[in-house]
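Check these lines:
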Amino acid sequence: MTWMVTGGAGYIGAHVVEAFRAVGLETVVVDNLSSGHRGFVPDDIPLVEADLNDRAALEGAFARYPVAGVVHIAGYKYAGESVRRPLRTYRDNVTGMVSLLEAMEGAGVRNLVFSSSAATFGTPEAELVTEASATVPESPYGESKLIGEWLLADQGRAVGLRHTSLRYFNVVGSGTDRIADTSPHNLFPLVFEALVAGRTPQINGGDYPTPDGTCVRDYVHVADLAAAHVAAARRLAAGESVEPVYNLGSGAGTSVREIMDAMAAVTGIDFTPEVRDRRPGDPARIVADGSLAARDLGWTMRHSVRDMVASAWSARQAGDRAKS
């Protein structure tokens, strides 16, 4: 049984491939390498270098490999950038999903795990979001992920596609020094880059109604996230029931200042973050209830905040050594 992992050369996708390997399941990666890295894909894992909108390449991959299901992670993942580049976002995330679903239908592949996003919620009214919370996305990125969920539901009704979508917030850490988060838009790489360059990391807002005045968010270790994708895939392959959507959250959250404190402790670089004005639209606290995923997928937060920071810092340092 082989699972196709779209975006499997990226930070999250490569960890998902590692998680499949750990349980003895074969994978084939489809990635256009626009933000992924060929070096993240082990030599013994097939890599099809193709864009999802290249139907011929997708059909060729399904014809060549005995694909039982797809874990769909590929996409344009920058919420802020999506406001500036909405057409790029919709082409990659919506048109690409349509192309993938058409190729899957043609190949008779009926199982799909979608790597969705908590950006589908927008700014929730409640501090703890559940799968039933209203979805009011506030960026083209969040909208594109929600449309992806709608496409899966429609295709499920039309042709019997079995699917589930995993929504999550901030993905951090590393499961192996071989795979690091290299995004120029994510918190951990931004803070590490500032520290290495001798700059002071910044916090946006220190007067929120939270225990330490900074925003509280869900931070999810990438290895825990990857394990949930594998659990969902195995459940689909076994014909077991799944919910259409699962939140992967802590139920408690971590403040930005707690993250900064952990950064200082792990790196050994003492700093006091610069507190700037609040950013418009940043709610004080957003965390997700992961109880449904715990029930069906064995979801749990296996890594502490220190684990998250330490593993990310180790991978960053390994990457720096490899470049030198």
About this structure: The mean pLDDT is 94.
